[in-house]
Structure formats: C-alpha cells, structure tokens
C-alpha cells in the first residue's frame, strides 16, 4: 500500500509541467459515520488539500490530488459517550465528465477509487477516566484500534465557474473494515463496518 501511494504521488509530480494539467486548492466540511453500526452517530469534520485535473478531451479528464480529511463518529447513551476522530491523507483517482451549462459554468460528474493513509486521531471514552487513546498506534503492548490504510469509492458532482472556481458535492464509501480485530454488534454477531462520508467543498483553480 505504501509503495502504491508513493507511486501515485510521484506520478502526479511528473505531470506538473504538462499544459493539460490544472491545479486547485480545496477546502470543505464533511459528515462521516460507519456503516452497519446502528447506534453510531455522524460527526462533522473538514477536508483540505490540492487537486489535479488532467484534461484528456474537452469533456473528459482525470482527477486526483492530495487531501487531508478529518472524519469521525460517536456513540452516546445514558451518559456514556464514545468518540472516534481519525485523520487521513487521501488520494482520489477519478474519471470526470464535463458539460457546459453556460459559457462560464460547467457541470462535472466524477467517480473512482480513493486510497487513504491514517495520519493520526484519537478515541475518547467519556464515562470513566476520559483518557484519549491513539487510533493508529498501539499502546501498552496492545494492537492499534484501527488499520492505517483504507480503500474505497469516491463519487460526486460539481460546478466549475469561469474556469477559476469550484463547488463540489462528494461522497465516499469504504471497501474494507478499518478496525483491527473482530467487531461485534449488540446481538453478538460479527460485523464488518466501513467508512462512509459526505462532503461539500469549494476551490480555486490556479
């Protein structure tokens, strides 16, 4: 996974000098949760980073970039609160289709896989000591709570305004369970939850 991420990053760097490549800065807010966990509640987070758009034709392009994304979810019941706040570096690899609505507005549809590396984050239980536990590194000889790598599908729609500004609505659904070890629901059944998030962001094209 590390080699794949590094290969993608070097590939984007190699495209810097191509005239078909446009770069943009993006910032947005998201709401994320876990699938198959009926009692979990979504938490707001943020995403920011640099996007890349490589034009193939007037209507088709390849979109990627490097994004920092803060995700999270929580449980809350009878005074007990359990909060998870992972932070990822994400690399989307998407195809995009564009069409002109007016001379200055383009409508964009995009979809493709994303790769993610967990950079940090904590789990905090608000019932006993309230101490924070790191999500991606083990403590006191224990395994880490979560796997550092994630993979999933990213999809969305957006608008390009005057070839300078971006507005994006984006969804993500993970393919793999991010937890180390088995996850058991309230009925005692083994489940395989996945990351899920929705975001709105704005951007500026260089």
TrEMBL record:
Domain Outer membrane protein beta-barrel: start-end pairs: 20-169
Source species, domain of life: Bacteria
Name of protein: PorT family protein
């Amino acid at each position: 996974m590390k080699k794949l991420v590094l290969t993608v990053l070097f590939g984007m760097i190699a495209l810097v000098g191509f005239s078909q490549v446009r770069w943009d800065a993006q910032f947005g807010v998201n709401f994320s949760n876990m699938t198959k966990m009926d009692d979990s509640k979504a938490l707001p987070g943020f995403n920011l980073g640099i996007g890349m758009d490589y034009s193939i034709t007037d209507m088709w392009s390849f979109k990627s970039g490097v994004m920092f994304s803060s995700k999270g979810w929580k449980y809350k019941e009878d005074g007990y609160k359990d909060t998870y706040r992972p932070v990822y570096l994400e690399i989307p690899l998407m195809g995009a289709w564009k069409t002109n609505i007016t001379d200055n507005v383009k409508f964009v549809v995009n979809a493709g896989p994303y790769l993610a590396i967990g950079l940090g984050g904590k789990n905090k239980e608000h019932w006993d000591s309230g101490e924070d536990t790191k999500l991606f590194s083990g403590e006191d000889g224990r395994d880490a709570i979560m796997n550092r790598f994630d993979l999933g599908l990213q999809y969305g729609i957006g608008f390009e305004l005057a070839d300078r500004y971006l507005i994006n609505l984006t969804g993500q659904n993970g393919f793999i369970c991010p937890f180390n070890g088995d996850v058991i629901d309230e009925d005692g059944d083994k489940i395989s939850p996945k990351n899920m998030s929705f975001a709105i962001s704005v951007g500026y094209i260089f």
